[in-house]
Amino acid sequence: DPHVRSTKQGSTFRSAAAAFAGVRSPEAVVALAAKAGANLTEGSLLRILERFGSEGAMREALLGRPHLPASVRAQLAVATGDALAAFSISVGWLSAERGERVVREAREKVMVSIAADAADEAGRASLMFARHLRHSRNLTAALLLRALLSNDRSLFEAAMCELSGLPFAKVAALVGHSQSPAFNALYTRAGLPGWLLPAIRGALAAQAGFD
Q1: What is the model's pTM?
Q2: Distance CA 205, CA 211 (A)
Q3: From CA 141, how far away is CA 183, in angstroms rounded?
Q4: Residues 91-117, mean pLDDT to the nearest whole number
């Protein structure tokens, strides 16, 4: 039965992906990642990146795969930025401090772009991406301000939802009234730094002026 055969093959690829991600050599995993028919799950791709993200061939193989999840694209950006920074510092092109700053700024720009691409009307994709950023320690106050300055409110709302534990609809309503005491309470509950609140409010007010 072709359908049964296809199902078994898909299961085999998923099992192989998990095994390769955990124990095999970089060369073997690169070959798997480059295989168009390999049904690699989001979790397997993230594990592969965690283990072999410093390998240039691995990053190239993953970049060649179509329809990468937002979380995987984000981790690819992190791995690529780290590799470029390490190289630039090792050859003396950048100081360690300058290299870290350049990579951080570039990473934030990429994250904002990925978030904008992933955004959907219901907010589910944005919430999933915000959760990934939080778990990977890339959900920073600076990133959220950059998102707002880039006219992307979806990532900010999703992040506030993830950090505060409040429902998305309630958070979106509070963000729409950024000058209110209720928004101040939401901001405090999310654990964001107080010194950044005026800038956040200013960015949201500017967006409201263009709506």
Answers
A1: 0.72
A2: 10
A3: 16
A4: 81
